[in-house]
Amino acid sequence: MAVMSTHHPLAFAFGILGNIISIMVYLAPMPTFFRIYRKKSTEGFQSLPYLVALFSSMLWLDYAMLKKDAFLLININAFGCFIETVYIVLYIIYASKENRISTFRLLLSMNMGLFSFIILFTHFVMKDSVRVQVLGWICVAVSVSVFAAPLSIVAQVIKTRSVEFMPFNLSFFLTISAIMWFAYGLSTKDLCVALPNVLGFILGLLQMLLYAIYRKANKVIMEEKLQENLKTIVILSSEVHPVDVQPQSNEDHAQKVIIINDDEKNNERNLGTSNEHLQPNENAV
């Protein structure tokens, strides 16, 4: 095979495994977007990780096309650009107006504006001898931000004690993918590929650890909410309505007693008057 002949067998093996696992990483959010499609709402999900992942794939694709014998990198990043674009389009369709506007702003500023600037800078300003290296280190910086992008969701998990919006499959495959591409980078002596995956491995482990910690805590929260809902249902079915009771002074209480006594006397007088006018066959009610 021509591709294998340009790679060390070990590097080729890690590259193939990296492609397979990276495809699983790209496909891991599919249940999330199926949920978004089914509920017609993006709920608490954010578009930033997908925008940054698209930006990274675009840069790595350009890097792989400039570098020789990088077919495996071209293949996976071309797929990444396609699938991330699909995710972003679906997000824009079902996002709220505010989230849709913010997503459009990031898409225009980062994925179009900043990407165009980097391409123009590296292709027309940098010399041919250093162009690949400069673009490679830019890819490293962006890859670090890709792995750091889920940190906002990590903070949300710690704050809410809920892993609802941090899919375990994505964290797991990111960790395995980082291992494969780190090994591929070392085998091909490409530090630009190897270095960012060290951080990816660490952050992937952190996300899985948080999932293990807060997965049970999430169940406790759901049970507490269920109990609160049951209490609310019982109260509503019994037609219990809260009434604010204001403390009364002794003078107010005495005035109310006098008023009640006066009312009773007036009722007795009215009753007596009405009895005088009754016919023999009528009964006072």
UniProtKB/TrEMBL annotation:
GO terms for biological process: carbohydrate transport. Residues 266-285 are annotated as: Disordered. GO terms for molecular function: sucrose transmembrane transporter activity; sugar transmembrane transporter activity. It is found in: Cell membrane. The chain crosses the membrane at residues 6-27, 48-66, 72-94, 106-126, 132-155, 167-187, 193-214. Gene3D superfamilies: 1.20.1280.290. Pfam families: MtN3_slv. One of its GO terms (cellular component) is membrane. Its main location: membrane. Keywords: Cell membrane, Membrane, Repeat, Sugar transport, Transmembrane, Transmembrane helix, Transport. InterPro entries: SWEET, SWEET_rpt. Coiled coil: none annotated. It is a multi-pass membrane protein. Residues 269-285 have a biased composition (Polar residues). Belongs to the SWEET sugar transporter family. Mediates both low-affinity uptake and efflux of sugar across the membrane. This is Bidirectional sugar transporter SWEET. It comes from Manihot esculenta (Cassava).
